[in-house]
Input
Amino acid sequence: MNWPGVLISAALWFAALPAYAALNVFACTPEWGALAKELGGDKANIYVATNALQDPHHVEARPSLIARARSADLVVCTGAQLEIGWLPLVLTQAGNPKIQVGQPGYFEAARLVVMLEVPALVDRSQGDVHPGGNPHIHLDPRNIAKIAAALSERMAQLDAPDADIYRARTKAFLERWQQAIVRWEKEALPLKSLVVVGYHKNMSYLYQWLGIREVGSLEPKPGLPPTTAHMSELLARLRKNPAKAVVRSAYNDPRAAEWLSENAKIPVITLPFTVGGTDKAKDLFGLFDDTLLRLLAVAK
Amino acid sequence: MFKRILIAAAIALAYTGPALAQNAELAKIREEIRQMKDAYEKRIQTLEKRLTEAESKAGKAESTASKAETTATTAEQSAAKAETAASSAGNRTGENAFNPAVSLILQGTFAKTSQDPNQFQITGFAPSGGEVGPPKRSFGLGETELNLSANIDPYFRGIAIASLAPEGGIGIEEAYFQTLALPQGLIVKGGRFLSGLGYLNEQHQHAWDFQDAPLVYKAFLGNQLKQDGVQLRWVAPTELFVELGAELSAGDQFPGSDRNKNGIGGSAIFGHLGGDIGVSTAWRLGTSYLQTSPRGRNYSDTDSLGGAVTNSYTGTAKLWGIDGVLKWAPNGNSTYNNFKLQGEYFRLKQDGSLTYDDTAQAVPRFSGVTCIGLCSSYLQTDQSGWYLQGVWQFYPRWRAGYRYDTLRYGTVSNGIVNNGLGPTAADFPVLANHNPTRNTLMFDFSPTEFSRIRLQLASDKSRLGVTDNQVFVQYLYSLGAHGAHKF
Output
């Protein structure tokens, strides 16, 4: 049996093909990949573990993720237990000490922002609750600014020779970003007090920023799929207190939203939710441009 | 309306009176009408003014109400925040601040089988010693699994999984440390752990897609191979997932046995390749090899007259296998629909000696002086088995699956039988020539990722000449810390 020999030669063959870049970034979700790209430019080699059409709660610790985490210098994730179903496994199986929890190579965005909807009661009878609060923090652009500043410092720390490049890029990014926020806030004025129904509670930060009121969710409880009973109850509520639209993310099943749309006679808005969720949401600027465009189309 | 009537009346009057008087009268009437008009207009204006005032007041009241509401919500939110901050601060300072993550698996079955589960055997294959039979009939509690895990320090992580048996007693499924800080993609595990052999072996039983293990796991690995020893893994720094592993163990679980000997009782190596095909498909392929040397590994059988016999094997056991799994979900979003195809093949070769012992019988037929040289001879086996299964999530929370299982008897060369002077083939009923097969259908419903109810129907031909038709209803609940499942 010559298995050891075969395995060792295979190992050596693959070991001869490492990926070279100044900083290998493993981003859990597309928004952090896009942010790292803005801040790192060609100094960062970015791998995004999930795409905009995947439910960030339900991702598997696929072999490809373990392989990418093996060579990562920095893991950028949301935290607040958003990735709890898969990231711990990827971290413990990748054999990479740099990216373990508590190391500089492990970055959690949720630590930098004020969390909304922190549950007073942490109990699974409430559905898929996150004890740290709602983890979908990236849809408030002011959070992105806070996270950008901290992430840039982390990248500079890990890749010291290029530190000035990260800082300069971040400064330029934040200037453009602040201008964009001013523009978005102006454009979004008609959205103030817009009443909508959501799918999952994953737009709360966007709504809080723009003053949009979410009066219900298609999910009876966070993480539970829409049920007939809940949908008819929601419909009855909407007949008394109408909403302007039903909002879903690109990764949510369209059927429930369409049913409510037909019965409540309100349009469905499909928001990109994250970078790549729609054709126009190519980067973080595009994400917010397209999100506002789609909401404004209904508010007018 | 009133005004119009007045005007109309005035006009009518104006045409009825004499001419002179008419002029004076007309002027008077005109004046009166003008006054009336003015008065009404004033009153209307006042009313309109009052209306607008009232309206704006109402609006203000409304906005005040909504403001109060917002303040209330904000107050509530800050209270909640303060509460969480306080509670998290409390958690951080208490003695329990470093408590490990705790989770518990509850499981049980309702079983209906056409054959007696206590008489279960896989004919043609030496019993592997594990709990390989179907669950008990009627209601039956499965093993309750208690899972504790935490980082020990910056260098190690510790995990313990205890199984609480329904009849009482605690078994240790796994209890191991694992390194966190080794460089170059190296990971060392030590203690008792699920071997990296095969695909299904490393998954916990509650994460399996069927209620029970494939026949090949039952026959060759005693359901699931747990190693007491150390494991070294290496993950290659490549985009393609390449993982190599080696294990050294006491080798005391089937196909090995407890040897009461110094040194290493068993060793295993395995290699995995994996990756994605587009965004929708992920795959993993593996191969593994296990070598061990059982000493006096015995099993009970009955001779041709029904008397109790113990057979014991000493020699080598070499197992190799290949495994593969492919998972597909549209755009990689498995929430709504997904498909999983998995299969494994194992081949077990043994070369050693077998001893036949019927001394436990009141009047042994063979043992004693007459049996020397007849009741102990060589045993060479070359047997294999495989399974292939597919599980389809056709609707959120609902899945259906099918599994085909088979074992190949292959060659069993039993020196005792071959020399023809002692016990015959009829005295080894467990080793009778038989190729077991099984067909299994599964449907399950998972309200959340923490709960699952499963219906499983199987037609099991593990036993020579009989078919066991099985119906299982199984529940699986996971409570406590959110576990992460292996790919």
Observations:
- The CA atoms of residues 77 and 118 of chain B lie 59 Å apart.
- Residues 9-19, 79-90 of chain B have pLDDT under 50 and may be disordered.
- Chain B touches chain A through 63 residues (CB under 8 Å).
- The longest strand of chain B covers residues 308-328.
